[in-house]
Structure formats: structure tokens, C-alpha cells
Description:
globular, five-stranded mixed β-sheet
Amino acid sequence: xxxxxxxxxxxxxxxxxxxxxxxxxxxxxxxxxxxxxxxxxxxxxxxxxxxxxxxxxxxxxxxxxxxxxxxxxxxxxxxxxxxxxxxxxxxxxxxxxxxxxxxxxxxxxxxxxxxxxxxxxxxxxxxxxxxxxxxxxxxxxxxxx
Length: 145
């Protein structure tokens, strides 16, 4: 996650905080495009937030009875994503707003990569029940020993 500080740490008025929660390493089965997954998500947080933005990246490891997962959460204090929009932001044809145009492939490709690694990805409200307080993107990837 140190790439976030390297690539986006010098953006004026944007604070990026990284918390590994005691987990310095979490190994997953992926390829070099994994960097692009997280770079895209952090880049979107930088692009879609206003001045004096706080972006937080948290990582932890979750275990259930059978599997272990590396969970990365990227949240921001952006205008957020309305509930009815959350279900479509990963669609291929979706285009950005007039303020932040894109090719409509960013989140679709990110989700496709996460799926190809056997993981899951979704978006939630940063503050439960109040989308206007920001967005939280969650990526869960199966961990390997």
C-alpha cells in the first residue's frame, strides 16, 4: 500500500492515511495488475473528492472456518454514492459524470480483476446509512500461506 503515498501523497489538500492494523504482509495469488486495482481505487478517491479530503486505506486479515482473506478498505469523505447507484457502478457501460469523465471501464476492470483473483469487491457508505458522508470500497482476496 505504500504506492498510495508515493503516487498520491503529493496531491495538495488530500491526506492519505494507511493503517495495516498490525498486518505488514498479506500474500494473495494475483499478478502485476493487482497494483492497478488499488491504484484505480485510490485514484478515484482522489479524483472524486473535493478540497481538503481525507482518504483512509485499511488492511486486515479475516479468517472463517475454512479460508483466510486479505481485506483492503479504501474510504473517503467524497459526496458518496447513492444506494440505487451502488448496484451499477461496476457495469461496463457506465460513464463518469460531467465533472469526472472516464471511459466507463475503470471500476468494471477493477472488479473483473478482483473476480479473476477469486476475490470479492463492493462499495458501502463510509458512515452506515448516510451515503453523503463518503464511500468505502472493500476488496477481499483469498490469502495464501
